[in-house]
Amino acid sequence: MTGEGLPIALIGILMALWLVGATVAIWVGLSLRRQSHRMLRQTSRLARLLETAPAFPVVVKGDGRIEAADRFSRLMGLSAPASTLSDLGGHDDGGLSSTDLAMLEEKVRETQRTGKDFVLPLPVSGSPRRLLVVGGIADTVIYPNGAALLWFFDSTDSLRELEARTEESEKAKSAFAALAGLIESAPLPMWHRSPDLSLNFVNMAYVEAVGASDGFQVVQDGIELLEPENGKTAAAFASEAMQKGQKIERIVSATLGAERRQLRVFDIPLGTDGSSGVAGLAIDIQDLTAARNEFRQLSDAQRHLLNMMSAGVVQFGSDYSLIFANLPFQRQFAFRDQWLTEKPEFARVLDRMRENGKLPEVRDFPAWRGERENWFRNPEPSEENWLLPDGTHLRVLAQPVPDGGLLLIFEDRTEQAQLASARDILLRVRTATFDNLFEAIAVFAADGRLSIWNRLFAETWGLPDEILIKHPRLDEILPLMSRHLKKQSQISIIGELVRMTTANREQRRSKAAFADERIFQIATIPLPDGNALFTMLDMSDSLKIEHALRDRNAALQEADGIKAKFLANMSYEFRTPLTSISGFADLLKAGVAGDLNDQAKEYVDAILTSAERLSEQINTVLDYSQSEAGVMPIAREKVDVHKLFVDVAAAKEGFAKERDVVLHLQIEEAKGTFSLDPKRIGQAVSQILDNAIRYHKAGGEVLLYARKSNDLLEIIVSDNGPGISEENQKIVQGDGKKALQLSDDPILQGLGLPLAKQLIETHHGTFRIESKPGEGSTIIMTIPSR
């Protein structure tokens, strides 16, 4: 190569190197430009992220100046951008308080000095905003002088949520502590099983029930409170509750302490599908069961008692349905037990009562029924009186019960109403009777107060009505009464009579002479109620009549004595010639005066018969007179009554043949002895037979029947003669003298039947006539042995 070509070559090389270098420079420049654009875009994005980030970066330099975005000032509520950390304080409507600012400055200085990070919550003055400041040392490359980088987070919502959660957490802790304390001190055994069904927790009641020392021992040893039931353990029941996801309730028997008790046990799964285990508790229902049994027994006894009451009782529940009705209620309202077992409602019961005619008649029954339904809502009991169509009076008491039901009591007051009506009538009758009595009557109470008086009492003593209606005391009216007495001092006797009767409960009598010459018989009688009855009877006319009667009685006694003497004299005077006539007739019949022809003999027999008849009549009159006077002697003795009646019939046999009357005897049942007077009873039967034969028609029949039964003798005499009229029967039964004097019946013309009646009654027997005219007569006599 030549010398000239070398420089050109070098220039060419240099130009090539320069071109290469220029190309490289251009390429590097372009690369740097692209990298610069990329960094600008990245810086722009980072700036945008910082602007929209929830945290605000603030750099605090060593000299106290700060670097922060404008929006940081807005965050702090400042009107102008802050250039130093001190600018954040001293504002009324924003920034930090002096205390918070001093705390922040202290934290920043400590970070700049030591590089220690810090977290500080700060409130913004005058704003509910809360900030969280996270501080640390800034990048030493960018800020070589020890600047601090502060991140301000707006944690207003977060802090509020945190405060709320903290408060809730404290409350939950407090509630859990209270619940744990409650469970621990609860008197009911309670426990918790972990998901593997092992005991995890028990309270003190559980510990005491199983007799352990503490809960840790129970959990550690797995001591079960409940015994296996039907081959299933307590854990098996808990497992069943966990599988079903619902609580299981059962009643078991267990030993608590040293006593056997009945428990109601609950197994309750916790969490979803029992993921939190199973809780359990046991309620001692032994006392409750005993109380229920006692209540059931008491209820049964009460219902039994209600069924025995006379009042009807029915009870309705809070749903207005019938719960109970006793038997008197069913009888009162004619309800069938089968219908009542359907538990009808109150309205249906009233409807059925109305159908049965057991409700008062009302014009608007639906409205009336609605008013009675208000009984369920009334707080106080209600009482009504029902008058039923059949005249029944019911007292109805409606008593609300605490459970919202109603108890009705129906008391039949019909008898009481009738008694009250009868009492009113009796009071009116008593008043009318008192006012129309011939006696003056008054009733004084135990305290001497006048309670009852009649019109005659007021008129007799001249007491005005205006005084009597005040019911004065006895000592108040005695001065008014004394002016009517002949001797006014005798009024004290009347007062003393009343006082002694009320105090000593003794009956007293006295007399009072009035100034008008009237004389009263006074009597005071104690009454059962403690009062005294005061009666006054005007004896003025009675005393006059008494004196007249005494005079007449003396005259009658004198006349009766004269009559007795007359009868005795007449008996002597009659019997003396009759004895002579009978004696001379017997002599004639015996032939003392010579033989008599047949006609003369008939005359003598007639004389003897008449004399005997007359003697018998005289004896009858004398005996009847003695019987009427009550002086006829009766001599009872043991007598063969069969022989007595045979002898009496034999004595009348001839007379019966003479009268062409057949005499029958039926005395077979009268055998044995009987205590009576044979003379008087024979006389009575003889008189009746004589009367039956004498006034009988020819061809008639007379029956004598006698029967002895224990202590009673029955005698019957019957005939088929003309009979005795009813009027004449009354005459014989009542007054024999009247029969003798007034009767026109030939059967009663004499004292045969009256004397027989007197003789039977003297033996304390009975005498009875049964007869109808034309159908004969039957005389029935009974005589007791004593």
From TrEMBL:
<dbReference type="Pfam" id="PF02518">
    <property type="entry name" value="HATPase_c"/>
</dbReference>
<dbReference type="InterPro" id="IPR003594">
    <property type="entry name" value="HATPase_dom"/>
</dbReference>
<keyword id="KW-0812">Transmembrane</keyword>
<keyword id="KW-0902">Two-component regulatory system</keyword>
<dbReference type="Pfam" id="PF12860">
    <property type="entry name" value="PAS_7"/>
</dbReference>
<keyword id="KW-0418">Kinase</keyword>
<dbReference type="InterPro" id="IPR004358">
    <property type="entry name" value="Sig_transdc_His_kin-like_C"/>
</dbReference>
<dbReference type="Pfam" id="PF00512">
    <property type="entry name" value="HisKA"/>
</dbReference>
<dbReference type="GO" id="GO:0000155">
    <property type="term" value="F:phosphorelay sensor kinase activity"/>
</dbReference>
<dbReference type="InterPro" id="IPR003661">
    <property type="entry name" value="HisK_dim/P_dom"/>
</dbReference>
<dbReference type="InterPro" id="IPR035965">
    <property type="entry name" value="PAS-like_dom_sf"/>
</dbReference>
<keyword id="KW-0597">Phosphoprotein</keyword>
<dbReference type="InterPro" id="IPR036890">
    <property type="entry name" value="HATPase_C_sf"/>
</dbReference>
<keyword id="KW-1133">Transmembrane helix</keyword>
<feature type="transmembrane region" description="Helical">
    <location>
        <begin position="131"/>
        <end position="153"/>
    </location>
</feature>
<dbReference type="InterPro" id="IPR005467">
    <property type="entry name" value="His_kinase_dom"/>
</dbReference>
<keyword id="KW-0472">Membrane</keyword>
<feature type="transmembrane region" description="Helical">
    <location>
        <begin position="6"/>
        <end position="32"/>
    </location>
</feature>
<keyword id="KW-0808">Transferase</keyword>
<feature type="domain" description="Histidine kinase">
    <location>
        <begin position="569"/>
        <end position="786"/>
    </location>
</feature>
<dbReference type="InterPro" id="IPR050736">
    <property type="entry name" value="Sensor_HK_Regulatory"/>
</dbReference>
<dbReference type="InterPro" id="IPR036097">
    <property type="entry name" value="HisK_dim/P_sf"/>
</dbReference>
<protein>
    <recommendedName>
        <fullName>histidine kinase</fullName>
        <ecNumber>2.7.13.3</ecNumber>
    </recommendedName>
</protein>
